[in-house]
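hey so u asked for the seq, here:
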Amino acid sequence: MSPAAPVSVTIDDIRVARKLLDGIARTTELESCRALTDRLGGPVYLKCENLQRTGSFKIRGAYVRIAGLSESERARGVVAASAGNHAQGVALAAQQLGVRSTVFMPAGAPLPKIAATRGYGAEVLLEGTTVEHCLTAAKAYSEETGAVFIHPFDHPDVVAGQGTVGLEILEQCPEVRTIVVGTGGGGLLAGVAAAVKAVRPDVKVVGVQAASAAAYPPSLAAGHPVVLPSVTTMADGIAVGRPGDVPFGLIRDLVDEVRTVSEESLSQALLLCMERVKLVVEPAGAASVAALLESADAPLEAPVVAVLSGGNVDPLLMLRVLRHGLAAAGRYLSLRIRLPDRPGALATLLAELAGTDANVVDVAHVRTDASLQLGEVEVELHLETKGTEHCRAVVARMSAAGYPVSEG
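ran it, structure tokens below
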């Protein structure tokens, strides 16, 4: 295995990128978060890249990369592979620069992301079922047609563009002590670290990965990028099985720590952003907030800025993640209860539930199942509750009323 690429992105590169992005990328808001401030005992702010053009930070790196192409390269067009955010960033950047773009996306990519990418002017080709399939197809397309392949994170220009987020944070929050950034391949984390450490080496930069898609901890331990055998996480925007060579070198040298977070914390973070901050954030975009939720055993020095890297979440996925977040927070309870199959049994059960002050979201009444006794039915109930203690109280009351209760 060859060593990772040396540090190759400087503060001057990032400042040049910022000039290129003037009028293209927004200077996104920095919002205070009282809920997280109370939890950490010091100021917490959210850097809202979910409100960036195309719904994520990706427009920054994509634009800088394409803007740096020669005239002959631009004439050949560009090609990219992505499940969503990078696709939209490349499409809009190419449109702004008058360059033809082709984007390979998985066949199962959310329809809103496919429509948005086409809306920015890209030709979208569906290939395979994973981003890896799309990357292979995009590279083959590049070799066949001469179109320039725009990597989502493994190029100095892309990293420099993403680093402009770090410059904005230092200007918006001069007193910052810790910056927390979700990461997959490493482009955003590397860029932020390169910008911040050049200006304020005293500020800690912390990366965050989903525990089931965390390539950086083993790679840093090995001293070079390693490939994970598999990645499985709801945070598809950071589900990357191998760090990029360019960002790895920067992260190895500049980032203070890379943490991992659970799927439960990711869903709770998304729920918190929606309920308490009124922001729509995708699971990958909420990884930094998930790290704050898990920081009790490893406190972060405040003031803290957590980067919300994206907000492009499929509505159907949002429904599933929110339900997962409610369950993880003890506010959603699923019960299975067996009843005698006679008139009024279900009404009596629901009357008992009404006394628990739990809200019935859904009821499934099953009569035909091989596991049921003759004259027996099973009722599956989905309840909205007030928290873990309330869940326990509901189960205790139903058990005390003589109902055999199974959770889950």
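Residues 162 and 188 are 5 Å apart (CA to CA). Residues 1-5 have pLDDT under 50 and may be disordered.
lmk if thats what u needed
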